[in-house]
Amino acid sequence: MKKNRFLRASLLLLATLLLAASCKESKETSEVSPESEISFADEVKAEMQRSWSAYKEYAWGYDVLLPLSKKGFNWYEESLGISPIDAYSTLALMGLEAETQEIEAYALAMDWDKDVYVQIFEVNIRILGGLLAIYDHTQNPEVLAKAIDFGNRMLPAFDSPTGIPYHSVNLKTGAVSGNQGEGEGNVINVAQAATYLIEFGILSYYAKDPKYYQAAKRASKAIFDRRSELGLPGDYINVETGEWTNTWSYLQAGVDSYYEYLMKSTVLFPDPEVKAMWEASREAINTHYAEEFDGKLFYRCVDMNTGAVVKRSMSLYDAFYPAVQALDGDLENAERNMETWNWLWNKYQLLPTRYLYEEDKVEYSNSELNPEIVESAYYLHQITRDPKYLEWIKTYWKDMNTCCRNEVAFNAVEDVRTKEPKDYLATYFYAETLKYFYLAGVDQDGFDFNAYLFNTEAHPFKRSHFDPALAATYLGY
Ligand code: DMJ
Question: What residues does ligand 1 touch, defined as CB less than 6 Å away?
């Protein structure tokens, strides 16, 4: 009897030990290299839920969560609810309905009649893009009315002599202001000047009023028409005189999404004039930015007039470009460009904000949980089905968890070399970074990549919602 009891106890102990060992193994496996795509997606989803709960607990009602001090932070004098509006489309794709309903109600209760100057570029991609994504998902006409109200409050910014928008607009009064640096007067960079074709096109389509798209197109054309003889834009321009105040030309932050929107907007709205602008731009990029260096493909920074090299640098933002190349059908350059980004990631297990590739030197050391490299690897995985891209994404996920996962959510770092934490969690981490990680782990039955177009903030829009013939009428091209 005693012997039997001892035997049973020993067997139980053995079974418990075996179970513990197998749990540990499966946890380690799922942290390092998830066994199945489903478990990877689930793991990302769980992190979204954890990080979103942190926003709700410590920062609800503020624009941003400061994850180390565990409090909220506003961009302006008053909150614009940027994190919730930005996070909505990721939560919706994950099927988190209670959360999305809560945000929809929050957005509907938002009064945009606020006496604050807002940066036109940032609110376009995050708030207008976010509201339109809520509408795309729910088809709730009250949400569309909110988006139209917001779009109307942005429009006065475009009322400049050149059609290039002012840097900021007051949401209540429509007064404009702003200087982004690089020269006296109302100066703006090219990305801030011309990243509106997608959101304003969608707004025109739904409102059946071309005025939004026409304002966006006039701004993009104003930049394109001031290109140099080499076909290149500069990076800073005076909104009132149309003079370039700096003549550097590149793919990096400050120009990036100008190019992105010339290409991507035509997927939804095949405006022949914009198509021609993109084709000419692509040619100039390939001729003047692209270079072989040390056996890799880089995109350098040049002077717009002479083509002379200004800097051999890459910023983590320009990792968006392989995605654009892949969507555009240029797989050869997309894959080679992606290799370069993957190489840089593996050097630091994160991307520095700016790296000088000729000098092998970190120029700006911080890293802010940005999505671009994940986005491009995701596009390439979807388009080529080469499994290596999913493996790369899983490495980025593992590294981001190692450096940046904290007690309540994730945080940026001050320096990619030391991984010194920074008390900030950008709203695009919810909108973009976690979305692309998640979608990479979902199979095609779960999400059909080809059925959607993403704006630069990763807000998804169903392509079938936009009829090309009606688009030409509603947008006026
Ligand atoms: C995002 O807000 C957008 O993707 C924007 O176009 C530039 N990059 C940030 C995230 O890095």
Answer: 125, 257, 317, 370-372, 428, 456-457
455 φ/ψ angles, rounded to the nearest 5 degrees: -75, 180
Judged by average pLDDT, the poorest of 142-156, 179-193, 262-276, 282-296 is: 179-193
Q: Which residues contact 6 (CB under 8 A, 6 or more apart)?
A: none
Please tell me the distance from the alpha carbon of residue 423 to that of residue 10, in angstroms, as a whole number: 50
The answer to whether the beta carbons of residues 317 and 361 sit under 8 Å apart is no
Closest alpha carbon to 354 in 311, 418, 397? 311
The tokens of 249 are what? 């030309």
Neighbours of 144 (CB within 10 A): 19
Our mutation pick for probing the ligand 1 site, out of 320, 400, 427, 429, counting the most ligand atoms within 8 A of Cβ, is 320
* Residues 6+ positions from 151 with CB-CB distance below 8 Å: 128, 199, 200, 203, 207, 212
What mean pLDDT is predicted for residues 61-80? 98
With both helix axes pointing from N to C terminus, report the angle between 37-59 and 2-32 in degrees, rounded to the nearest 10.
80
Contacts (Cβ under 8 Å, ≥6 apart) of 391: 33
pTM to 2 decimal places? 0.91
Ligand 1: which residue has its CA nearest to atom 10? 370
Average pLDDT of span 422-438? 98
Quote the tokens at residue 27.
């946890």
Q: Say if residues 235 and 246 touch (Cβ distance below 8 Å).
A: yes
Dihedral pair phi/psi, residue 80, rounded to 5°: -110, 5
Q: How are beta strands 71-73 and 64-66 bridged, if at all?
A: antiparallel
Q: What percent of the chain has pLDDT over 90?
A: 89
The one-letter amino acid at 7: L
Strand 452-454 and strand 460-462: the pairing is antiparallel
Sign of the alpha-carbon dihedral angle for 46, 52, 54, 57: negative
Query: Which ligand 1 atom is at minimum distance from the Cα of 370?
Result: 11
Q: How far does residue 456's CA lie from ligand 1's centre (Å)?
A: 6
